[in-house]
Each structure stands twice: as C-alpha cells, then as structure tokens.
Amino acid sequence: MINRTGLLLLSFCLLILLTTISVVKADDYNTIEKVLTELESGTTIPQTELIEKITYLKNQLSERDSSYYLRLQAIICWNYDVDDPKQRALAISFANKQLNNPFIQQSPEHHLDIQLCKAWFNQIDGKVTQALKEYDEIIQRAYQIESLKLIADGRSIRGAMYSFQGNFSLALEDLITAQHLYDNLGLNHWSQINLSDLATSYRRFGDPQTAIKYYKQLEARFIKLNDMDAATAMITEMAIAYEELGEYNKAIEYYQKSYEYWQKQGDIFSASTIAVNISGSLIKLNRITEAQEYLSQASPHITSKDEAFYSFMKLFEAEISLIDEKPSEALNALLEAKSAFNRVKNKRGLAQLSQIESQVYTSLGDWPKALQALQRYVQLHNELDAKMQSNRTTEMRTRFNTEQIETENKQLIELQKARELELHILEQNRYLQFTVIILAVIVILFVSLFAIKQVQKSKLLAVLALTDHLTKLPNRRQTYSEAEKHFSNNNSKLSLILFDADHFKKINDNFGHEIGDKVLFELANISNLMMRRADLVGRVGGEEFLIILPDTSLEQAIKIANRLVESIAKTDLSHLSPTLSISVSAGVAEKEQDASFTELLNRADTALYQAKTNGRNRAVFNTQQTDQ
C-alpha cells in the first residue's frame, strides 16, 4: 500500500507532467489562434499559402480541440473556389455533411456560420429563391443567439443580393445595418467589402456620383494594403457608375484598366466578365464591330451558370444581331438572356430585354408580340420607377432606425466580448484544472453581466424619456433642450420652422384616430427626409412639429418651409385611405434680437397663426421689424 508521502510524491510528479503538457499545448494553441484569426479576417492570401495553412490546421486539430475545430470547419467551407462549379458543388456537399454532424450541431453559432456558407454557394450556383429563404432563417436565428458577426455577415450578403435584384429599400436596410456592426466590431476588411456593396447600391439606386466617391476611397485603401485584386474591382465599379452617368468613353477607359489587369494575372474568367461590360458601352457608342470582338472573347468562358454576366452577354448579342438585321438570332439570344434574368430576378435587366424584344418583333412585322413586349417594358419600367420614388424615404428611415439601434449594437458587442472571454478562460482551464479560478471568473462574469444589464436598462430609459413614442422623433422636452443650446451660441445663425397639420381634427373624426396616428408618422418621415444631418425635427404637440435649423438664414429657412409645405400637399396617402389628403401650415422665424428661445419660438408661432389665418397650406415668416 502506498503511504501518504508516496501519494504526495506521485501527485507532485503528475502535477509537473500536466503543467509541462499544458505549456506545450499553450504554445501550440497560440500559433493555431494566430492562423485561425488570419484566415477569419478575410485578408487576401495566395492560394498555395492558403492551402498550406488549412492543411496545417487539419493536422493539428481534432474534435477534442472543440472551439478551434469548430472555427476550422467554417473556414474550410468558405474557402472553396467560388468561380469553379465543381468546387461550389464540393462546398455545398461539405456544408451538408457538417450540418448533420452532431458535434457541429452542439454549437449554434458555428452551425449557423456553415449554414450561411451553404446558402451563399447556393446563391452563386443560381438557386436564388432557396438562398434568400435560407438567409432569412439564418439572420433571424443569429439575432436570437446574439451573434453580431453572423448578423452582419448575413445582412451584408443578403443586402448585396437585394441590390443586384433592384430591391434597393431592403438592400439599404441590410447594408447600412451591416456597416454599423462591422465598424463597431472593428472588422475593417469586411467593413470595406460591405461599403463596396453599399456604394454599388447607391449606384443602382440612381446616385452614381456618391458611389464613385466611395469607390475612390476604397481603391486608395486597397492600394495602400497592396490588395490589387480588390483595387481593380473598385475600378470596375467606377466604370459601371460612369456608364450609368452616360459617360461611356470614360467607362471604357476604366473597364480597359480592369481588363488588362485580369489578363496580366491570367484570370481569364474575370477578364471575360469585363469584356461583356465593355461591349455594352461600345454598343451605346455604336462601335458595333469592337463590341462583337469583346463578346467573342468572352463567350467561351462564361456559361449559363454565371447568370449575372451570361444574361447581359446574351442581351448584348441580341442587340448586335438586331443591328445586323438578324432578328431570328436576336430572339434566340433574348430567350437565353430572359431565362438567366428570371433566375436571378433582375427586373432592371428584364426591362432592357423587353424593350429590345419589342424592336425585334417590330422588325419581323409581328405587331401583337411587339406590343406585348412593349407593354412588359412599360410595366417593368413603371415598377422600377415606383420603387425608386419610395427608396428615398426608405433610405432616410433606414438610416434613422440603424442610428437608433447603434447604441444597442455596442452593448451587444460588449456582451459578446464578455462571452468570448468566458469561453477562452474555460478552454484554458480545461487543461490546467484550476477550479477555484474558474469559479471566481464565473462570479465576476455574472456580476459584470448584471452591471451591463443595468447600464442597458438605464440607457434605454434615457432614450425613451426623450423620444416621442408615435413618431420616434425627439419629444417636446428634447427638442426644446436642443433648441436652447443652439440659441445660446451667439456666433451662429438659427432659424425655426413651426408647422402643424391643417384640419387634423377632421381627419380623426372622418377616418379614425388610428389613421390620424399614421398621418402623423408620415409627416414625421417626410420632414426628416427633407432635412440635413445638422437639422433636428421634433414633435412638440399633438399635430405640431418644430424644426431647428442651425446656421440657417431666414431666406434659406423660408425656402425649406415652402418645399416642406409643397411636398406634404403632394404626398399620396391613398395607401391609408383612398380619399385622404393632408396639408400643413408653417411659421418661420430667424434669431435676431430675441432675448430668449421662448421669444423666438413665439414669433414662429405668430407666423404659424398668420399662415392659418391666410388660408392654410402655406408658410409665413416673422421678423422683429415686420410681420409678413
């Protein structure tokens, strides 16, 4: 029987052995952590080096190294070659296998990451409807488990897809939210990629000048990082923006830069996609022979599975066939283009296709089909116009909502960091067996979480106390407080616009208070949309709103007030009730010799009363010298 001294000696030896093993493991895991972090960062790595790093991790890790092994499976999935159809099929097969693995299923976050990877490859493979359904489910679950990175990844990918389809309202909501999350998480690489998609959405949204500004910033960043692939992608996007501005020669100049770069890199597929874009600009300049040459170069390398480029390649081939008076060839090309456009639900492309299809049938003398195609073009064009008109309001609403939840996102980030710290500590102590330290950390963590919850609650209450519940605008207290601050600044101009809804009581009486509340919400959105970032719109009464205009003269404020009155009078409220319309009256005043903000506000109120007296649906200003 081993005596007590023998037991102590054996325990001491085992302790030394375990400590030695732990130190060796710690050194190994430090290297593994660095490699995993590098691969997860999205930084461009040469293909041979990428394969070496993934192979190293496969050899080092097993399911016993739980958190590291889980991260590795997601990395493997995302790093299949997206441009190779066979690799895409392998990625989907790999993802399905991992999703059915009970070990992977035990980690909701990593399981969701692999599911997102699978959905993305499905999208690239042309299964757009299936991918969208998967994105919706993944994002919903990501919110449930509070995984900010997955929320950002899911909304960024889905937003880019919405943008390509022409659904800009949903695209902007997703991409702006993702941008806030990436910036707050400090994920610079993914932030840049998302910003590129956001810029592209602005370009498709009808604001190519803003898009070009962002593209130039991103190009400079990528050149500084020596990421020439990404920099060239920005040059391509700028070319597309110039094309949409009608500057086709400049667009071709930028396309040529990208085309020559990809040829030099030996990337035939990327060069072929640029060749398709160049041909489109050349057709606009009636340089048909050159356009045909570029399409001939691209045709062998772009297949029907590459819908985004294949659809436009066939569309441009149809245009050239029509110009060459070969309507039958044009119809065949249009049929293939239409199939590709439908698969990716690209209404913009379908609208262009319908217009060309009408011209083809006209050349064939088939007037009924020409008329049908023209009617489809008008319908699609009207749908796109209607969507574009609503997008401005949607963009401002999206910005307002995302700015409102930015504070909540930051709090979630702190919770996530605390959770990651806990997992790291638990992983290390699995080898060191320091039970006392684990218990201490758990106690500290619970205290920290409780404190964070209290801070969240306090911040939420503070926000609610200063926000109007119905319109989500600053309430009377917050609005007046901000106005007092601006009034106290003696070195700057200040103007006020006080407006309220005309005959609002009749709206409540005739249509009900629920419709009345919705009208107030519309007034809040319209006024917010028209204001600058520095301006503030607040609800200060039942149907009364106050607009604070810092650094704004009376003349400028009058113009803004007139535009506001006119815009509201033209607003279509038929979606609330077929016979519903609304107008507002506004009073304008500029700070002059007023002794207090209250005095300035009273002058604006006097002007508002005068507007009501003069017949409503107008703006009237007030000065200390003259009442207008």
From TrEMBL:
Swiss-Prot/TrEMBL keywords: Membrane, TPR repeat, Transmembrane, Transmembrane helix
Family annotation (SUPFAM superfamilies): Nucleotide cyclase, TPR-like
Source species, domain of life: Bacteria
PROSITE patterns: GGDEF, TPR
Cofactor: Mg(2+)
Pfam hit, one: TPR_12
Transmembrane segments: 431-452
Protein's UniProt name: diguanylate cyclase
Origin species: Shewanella woodyi (strain ATCC 51908 / MS32)
